[in-house]
Design brief:
The chain is mostly helical. The protein is built from two helices and two strands. 76% of the residues lie in helices and 5% in strands. The chain has a two-stranded antiparallel sheet.
């Protein structure tokens, strides 16, 4: 390598270094400009945030007012419908009480009439009841008289050795025999 080549190399190297320094300064200026733009953008964003916040608050207040108006209208309509329902309910309750009373009264009358009709056919008149009572007294008196005369005798059909059917009575063997072949019937 000769001197001339070395000079050219140094020249080229100096130009590369000068270009690098120019690029460095340009990069520094770009960074500073970006920092300034970033600060400016941040300031504008903060300002925009305030404006946006105010606009959103205003829009939300308008929306809330509209919803409140709509809800108030709905509540008024609901209140009117509730009043109408209350009136209908009260009228229904009044009529329901009368309907229940009328139904109960009709059922009671039908029950009484049907009971009277059924009793008319099954319960005899008072004169017939009195006649049956007097007949019962007469029959009770006759039963007492018959029992005294041997009405409690236990009679049974029986047959003797020639297969002849006869009426038999149970005799009290321990009582023994009396005059003319009489004996005591069991149970007397």
């Amino acid at each position: 390598m000769n001197m001339r080549d070395l000079d050219q190399l140094y020249d080229s190297l100096g130009r590369v270094l000068a270009a690098a320094e120019n690029h460095q300064q340009a990069a520094d200026r770009s960074i500073q400009a970006m920092n300034k733009a970033s600060a400016n953008l941040e300031h504008k964003a903060n300002t925009l945030d305030g404006q946006l916040s105010r606009e959103m608050t205003r829009a939300m207040n308008l929306a809330v007012a509209d919803v409140a108006k709509a809800l108030t209208a709905q509540f008024k309509t609901s209140h009117e419908l509730a009043k109408q329902a209350e009136t209908c309910y009260r009228n229904s309750v009044r009529w329901a009480a009368w309907k229940v009373f009328a139904t109960a009264t009709i059922c009671g009358v039908v029950l009484i009439l049907s009971t009277a009709y059924l009793m008319q056919g099954t319960i005899p008149p008072y004169a017939e009841i009195e006649a049956l009572r007097s007949e019962k007294a007469y029959l009770t008196k006759n039963i007492s008289e018959l029992e005294r005369r041997g009405g409690r005798v236990n009679l049974s059909p029986c047959s003797d050795g020639s297969n002849r059917r006869r009426l038999c009575v149970k005799i009290d063997e321990q009582a023994g025999a009396f005059q003319n072949g009489y004996r005591v019937i069991a149970g007397y």
